[in-house]
Specification:
This is Hsp20/alpha crystallin family protein. Pfam families: HSP20. It comes from Peribacillus cavernae. InterPro entries: A-crystallin/Hsp20_dom, HSP20-like_chaperone, Small_HSP. This protein is of the alpha+beta class and 156 residues long. It folds into two domains: 42 residues; 96 residues, Sandwich (Immunoglobulin-like), CATH 2.60.40.790. 24% of the residues lie in helices and 40% in strands. Strands 1-2-7-6 form a four-stranded antiparallel beta sheet, with no helix packed on it. Strands 3-4-5 form a three-stranded antiparallel beta sheet, with no helix packed on it. Strand 3 and strand 4 form a beta hairpin. It starts with a helix and ends in an 11-residue tail after the last strand. The mean pLDDT is 79.
Length: 156
């Protein structure tokens, strides 16, 4: 057997395999895809601004107060669902864009429906039947009473 035939039969060493793998991984992160790897992931999953809205939760001994900032949304486009230990806020926002081109006499109207949703998990069970909500100046405020559990005495 010649030396060239012996080299063909040899398996690559572990170090060579590892070096090749690392080179491939380095190339993946060094070469920019069309928008960049992280930007592509953000576009796929959407950013928090596209699918959600800011929420503030204030807890005291008897209840939770949830404030959601949803400017430009009408009261009838808000849906609130009460869970055993949380709240789901769904918002429908229809945006209409109109374009006119007076030179060509064209009129274009584009309407899109964007749904935003936020699930708020709370640390204690709530009484959804006694919850109340108000919507004023782009702020949705929900007051949700906590359920009181039964306390038991510890025996010796």
């Amino acid at each position: 057997m010649s030396d060239s035939e012996n080299n063909k039969n040899l398996k690559p060493s572990t170090k060579e395999v590892f070096d090749e793998l690392m080179t491939t991984v380095d190339r993946l992160f060094a070469e920019k895809p069309y928008k960049g790897l992280l930007q592509s992931m953000d576009d796929f999953f959407g950013t928090s601004n596209d699918r959600s809205f800011p929420v503030e939760i204030i807890e005291n001994e008897t209840d939770y107060r949830i404030k959601a900032m949803i400017p430009g949304i009408k009261r009838q486009d808000i849906d609130i669902e009460m869970l055993d230990q949380g709240v789901i806020i769904n918002v429908k926002n229809q945006e209409t864009v109109q374009e006119t081109n007076e030179n060509k006499g064209l009129f274009k109207r584009k309407s899109t429906l964007k749904n935003k949703s936020r699930t708020i998990r709370l640390s204690k069970p709530i009484d959804g039947k006694k919850a109340s909500a108000s919507h004023r100046d782009g702020v949705l405020e929900i007051k949700v009473p906590k359920l009181k559990g039964k306390r038991i005495a510890i025996n010796d």
